[in-house]
Amino acid sequence: MTDIIQLLPDHVANQIAAGEVVQRPASVVKELLENAIDADATEIKLIIKDAGKTLVQVIDNGKGMSVTDARLSFERHATSKIKSAEDLFQLNTKGFRGEALASIAAIAHVELKTKRAEDELGTAIEIEGSQVKSQEVSVTPTGTSVAVKNLFFNIPARRNFLKSDTVELRHITDEFHRVALAHPSIAFAFYHNGSELFHLPSENYRQRVVHIFGNKTNEKLVPVEEETEVLKISGFVGKPEYSKKTRSEQFFFVNQRFIKSPYLNHAIGAAFEGLLKDGYHPSYFLNLTVDPKTIDINIHPTKTEIKFDDEHTLYAILRSAVKHSLGQFNIAPVLDFEHQSNLTTPYNYKNKAASAPTIEVDRSFNPFADEANTKPPSQHRQFKKAPAASWESLYVGLESKGNNKQEDFAEVAFESDSKTESIFSDASVETAKTTFQLQQKYIVTTLKSGMLIIDQNRAHQRVLYENFLRHITIKEATSQQLLFPLQLHFTPGESKIIKDLKTDLEHTGFVFSGLSEEEITITGVPVGVPESEVSIILEQLISDVQNDVPDANFSATDLLAKSMAKSLAIKNGQSLNGTEQEHLVNSLFACKEPNVSPTNRPTFITMKVDDIEKKFM
């Protein structure tokens, strides 16, 4: 029998390694931006075409590379960051494993131009699928330019897994935000299809957060500063009233590297305990600085997960620091049982001497004497006593009528309760008896064959979903005008989502009078939608677009109808009277697809009499 184990060719091994490092264009953006930062660049440009499928280019003014380094940088496990395994625990750079450029070159067309400051001429290299096509001397500015074209050109299956341009651009934007927030001292520029999306100058951390998420963000931030022997914390958390349903504004940076940590996120949630509404998440932009020896960042291919040496201590410090900031800036309510506000001396009485109170007593005052015989109490004050009526006058006009007791009671009339007929017919009363609400979550009613149990939230979602779809399709939805225009503030990215869905939103009944990058003005809302629910609906819609967009062939109309139905549907725990229960049941079975909710979950179940009888056997 022949041997069956064999070594893989280098180009196949590189393609397999690329599957771990490069999942989508955003992965290429992350790796190239981190390489530019490691090269000590102060200005970085990111140029994207067709959401990275056609071009991802990063231009920096960093140190550049020599001819030998430029050629060697595309070899697997070639790196200048580490020389031994022990160096993994002394890392102060982004890339260190030497896999990024080799993996990218295996699945794309790559053009590299680089030059050091001390060199007169630079180097230009072209690689296609790990094969070096050309290497020559080039006239290029100091720094490095890496252009990645036609991603996954030699792996069509991987390219087919890419989502729509909208989704891929959102992932690229998220990676750009993470790198830009971690390095506010570096100037960044971001271009997509020739238009500038972001232009961030070198600035402090607060300015960087405001430039990325909009000017309105400035008033939402609460600074957090804490320094201990094991951990240094700096950054900001958002005020509780500006919390969101999404986690789009949650950023942890450990030693200037973005990470995801559910454990530390729980610490922030514990600090905000009692300050947030159900289903809402706090915003935070926190930089954590720890000793590199106490963390292991080599546990995940994308290096977004880190293993800490002592997580419990970090949890306690982080929770306390955030809670202290919320209390220090009067965000969280503080109870001081030792302080009494009525004993606090006003500032204008600070230097005044206390005056002793004087007491005046009228020793000749007799409360039983008549007013005529009462003398003035003193020369300073006169006490006036109200004339006391004789107690006998209280009974004047009352005569004994002992003989007429029967007549008095004959004249007494008693009030009777007025009878009002029911607004609804007897049929509705009977229906109310046949429907029953279980635990304010399910509606139970009877069938010929047994019992029907309806989930009120899902059922109402189905009813609203089909109504909104009908309104959007026929474009005849009615709206109610607001007395005062409603102004809502969003980040530039969120405002763009609303702009893209503006036409469909208007077909449901929304009326917009202004749409800017950070502010949206609404003058009309769909009939039946409370004004207080408008911001919740739009936030839910933005969240659904950001997280639940399937692919390029999704329907914006369908997504909008689902999102609005989810926001406005009757919630579990809401009590319904018999008429409301009947109306919901009838509306559900008038739908085209009453069996499932808009998210394809069952709206009701049935229990036959035979099944119930089996329970008693």
UniProtKB/TrEMBL annotation:
GO biological process terms on file: mismatch repair
GO CC annotations, alphabetized: mismatch repair complex
Family: Belongs to the DNA mismatch repair MutL/HexB family.
PANTHER family in alphabetical order: DNA MISMATCH REPAIR PROTEIN MLH, PMS, MUTL, DNA MISMATCH REPAIR PROTEIN MLH1
One Gene Ontology MF term: ATP binding
Swiss-Prot/TrEMBL keywords: DNA damage, DNA repair, Endonuclease, Hydrolase, Nuclease
Stretches of the chain forming a coiled coil according to its record: none
Function: This protein is involved in the repair of mismatches in DNA. It is required for dam-dependent methyl-directed DNA mismatch repair. May act as a 'molecular matchmaker', a protein that promotes the formation of a stable complex between two or more DNA-binding proteins in an ATP-dependent manner without itself being part of a final effector complex.
Protein name in UniProt: DNA mismatch repair protein MutL
SMART domains: DNA_mis_repair (SM01340), MutL_C (SM00853)
Gene3D superfamilies: 3.30.230.10, Histidine kinase-like ATPase, C-terminal domain, MutL, C-terminal domain, dimerisation subdomain, MutL, C-terminal domain, regulatory subdomain
One Pfam match: HATPase_c_3
The DNA mismatch repair protein S5 domain, residue ranges: 209-327
Organism: Winogradskyella ouciana
Chain's gene name: mutL
The MutL C-terminal dimerisation domain, residue ranges: 434-576
Matches recorded under NCBIfam families: mutl
